[in-house]
Amino acid sequence: MLENVGQPGDGHSLIDIKKVSKLFGTFHALKDVSLEVGWGERVVICGPSGSGKSTLIRCINQLEKHQSGSITVGGIVLDDSKASVNAIRANVGMVFQQFNLFPHLTVLENLTLGPTRARNLTKTQARDHAMPFLERVKIPEQADKYPRQLSGGQQQRVAIARSLCMEPRIMLFDEPTSALDPEMINEVLDVMTELAASGMTMICVTHEMGFARRVADKMVFMDHGEVVEEAKPDDFFKAPKSARCREFLEKILQH
Amino acid sequence: MNNKYLFIGIALLLSGCSAQWGWYVVDPSLPAGRSNLQFLLNGFYDTIQLSVSAILISIVIGLLIALPGLSHNRGTRSINRVYVEIVRAVPILVLILWVYYGLPQMANISISVFWAGVIALALSDSAFEAEIFRAGIQSIDRGQYEAAQSISLSYSDTMRFVILPQAIRRILPALGNQLVYMLKMSSLVSVIGMQELTRRANELVVTEYRPLEVYTILVLEYLVLILIVSAGVRWLERKMQTDERH
């Protein structure tokens, strides 16, 4: 489990990213990126595609390895050790653009696989543990269906429930609505808004600016692997400081 | 397909009524024919035992060899390459001879005909299966691994509960092919004296001088065996698909 560093008022950040760089071959995906996220804080990261926003949050749970700089989550420093990666993954949930549900398992089995294997719950315990999460994302009646029988929005809500089932302290969202038909975006955003209201620490990579305005405590704009701007949502949307950010917002807010 | 085989079978049996054929050697209504037929059919037991043992072992070895082939580490991956390239390059018949006559001398052990056959068939098949497994596992989307990692599954749990169950569905047709191939190749073990279907037919031909009838029976024996395996594989394929679709 995480050490209790990053609790409100202890002077530390829950997530502390310092000068992180990441190269894919010769492509500089992240250049000396620093970002702090406090306990219960909701951060929305936006920016053009290829700006490194997904890479940044994937570094937090080490789906990508960074080459330099440091990442600390709840007092645990990410190093090459399996122990640090496992400790952090145990506390960080992730939701993917393509849902990544397990297609050969039912909705309920998708939820209970983690708890039964990584937390050693029995099948019955895991079921009792999982059902409230399905109710929370409002699809308990789909428990015994297979992912392909659900709509995209429903699938993404199952994916959120699957993550929550592991009781993470931090949730990462990697463009959770980008693969959805427009009419299904809101049902997913509603679940995320509800989650934000419950006090979950969240980092969301998204272009849903309405959602960002509603829930974000902090907006981050990235471009070419750098954090260009970091601001409170009010300031961010009303008076972006950098030209690049202004340009980006003009483009996406027209729609 | 099945109708075609049935037709060929019936045609062969009908042509057996003509004067050229001497079905008496395996005619169940005659005492000698009955014992000959019994002798041939008993080979089913040996062929099946040999093939099933070899298949089970080859699947385990194949999987163990496929996994290092998926590694990002070059050294680990080369374990897979070296094994596959070497084993795949040896003809099955040569491997059978080497395991039965060579291996005991080299390792100073004694080995039965049955186990020599099982080992040779399993080794030979495992190289092909390793490639089938590797291709199937590599066809699974990377997002599945990432989702598994993000809910804290270990590597072995990820393989066992997430990747392999999906890979096996895609692999099944190719694996079915391989099983049929292996079943047929088990006939080669007759050369070191394993009394399976083919060896028994050869022995009977030597004593009865009726190769046409005896080998025709042998053809039909393999046909029946392989049709059953094919049907089994297809049934499994259908079952797994409906499991996923509902």
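The interface with chain B takes residues 61, 63, 86, 89-90, 92-94, 96, 98, 100-104, 113-114, 117-118, 145-146, 148-149, 159, 162-163, 165-166 of chain A (CB under 8 Å).
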